[in-house]
Amino acid sequence: MRPIRPALAAASLAVALALTATACESGGDPKADAKPTKSDAQEGGSGADEAQLPDNLDDIADRLKEHGIDVDKWKDGEWKNWDKDKWLREAKDFANPVIEGLWDADRMKSAKSPSQTISSKAAASNEGVTDPEPRPVRAEPERTPYYKYAAPVGKIFFDTPEGTAVCSGTVVKDPRNPGKSNLVWTAGHCVHAGQKGGWYRNIVFTPAYNHKGLSARALESAEPQDRAPYGQFWADWISTSGEWINGTTAASPEGGSYEYDYAVLHVKPERGTKSLEETVGAALPVDFSSPSPKSVDAMGAWGYPQAPPYDGALMHKCIDRPGRLSLAPDAPTMYRIGCTMTAGSSGGGWFRETGNGELALVSNTSIGPAGSNGWLAGPQLGDGAKRVFDTMSRKYGSQ
């Protein structure tokens, strides 16, 4: 039997995401298109040390008070204090109180991507493990409306000491809460500064952001439901890898452990009580099998590139046959594909078709080359990533 040609595999992958985005399984019956309505609009830690995680998500005020922070003052602007003593760093200290109305059109417009690049010299090291650099694959705009073709994909907005920032994320299935997942997959560097800092703040997920595909200028005067058709979902807990927090395999000037650059958000709506998956009508499973690049005909990356020549308004995608990238001899290799998406697509999901034809998230955008935008690399999701995910699902999935 002939192997699937990359062009055919790419087309199949794009179609599979569209099918997943328009139907969500619940009790075996596919739902109708999950179209946004006006009413719909209206885990800190590594997971490796589960004992550090609180038993519930209702003690945000208490966690802040332990560090001398009053939650009311926090909402009134104290969150802007990034002094070392106020910047919560440890896994157990994550806190993200909802500040209703904070992310308005102006703050969304001003958000810039945290730059995550690595030098060509570092990327070319460890010959024999790193495959030749892929040819660039031009990113294509996703079809609109996004709720029909890529509903699980969205933008993540957050605050850093340098200002507002943006990444991408994906709604993923929670096996312990079928049909009612509140979990979002993204990159570790989109939620935590790593060894150089702590947790970012005011982290929200906006699924199917700008679902009509309006231009950046048109978005300035667009209705709120055009920017956020399903509303905004605040992270009330986040889990990322201990390697990312501590930078234990640093291979870059920033000290990032990009081979472990992944995170899972547990979210809740800014308004209402419906779960994220019920609201959006779609979610994707996560594949933790770490398939060899040689065994995969195509991987697709989706996200919202913001750095030039893009402006962050539109969702894009790239599909390519993956290769290997090694940054450190004692760390896992990363997946790498050709793609012209830039910063802002960080955290966006990478998808592949599994053996049973199901589309699954297999990685997320982490880094690209310094000084150009010809490829992207993402971590393999193995046992460590699965522990982070399972801890989140088990402890917080039903909350």
Automatic annotation (TrEMBL):
Region (Disordered): 25-58, 107-140
Signal listed as a keyword: yes
UniProt keyword annotation of Signal present: yes
SUPFAM superfamilies per the UniProt record, alphabetical: Trypsin-like serine proteases
Signal peptide range in chain numbering: 1-23
Biased composition (Basic and acidic residues): 28-41
Keyword vocabulary terms for this entry: Signal
InterPro entries on file: Glutamyl_endopeptidase, Peptidase_S1_PA, Peptidase_S1_PA_chymotrypsin
Composition bias, Polar residues: 112-123
Name the record gives this protein: Secreted protein
Native species: Streptomyces solicavernae
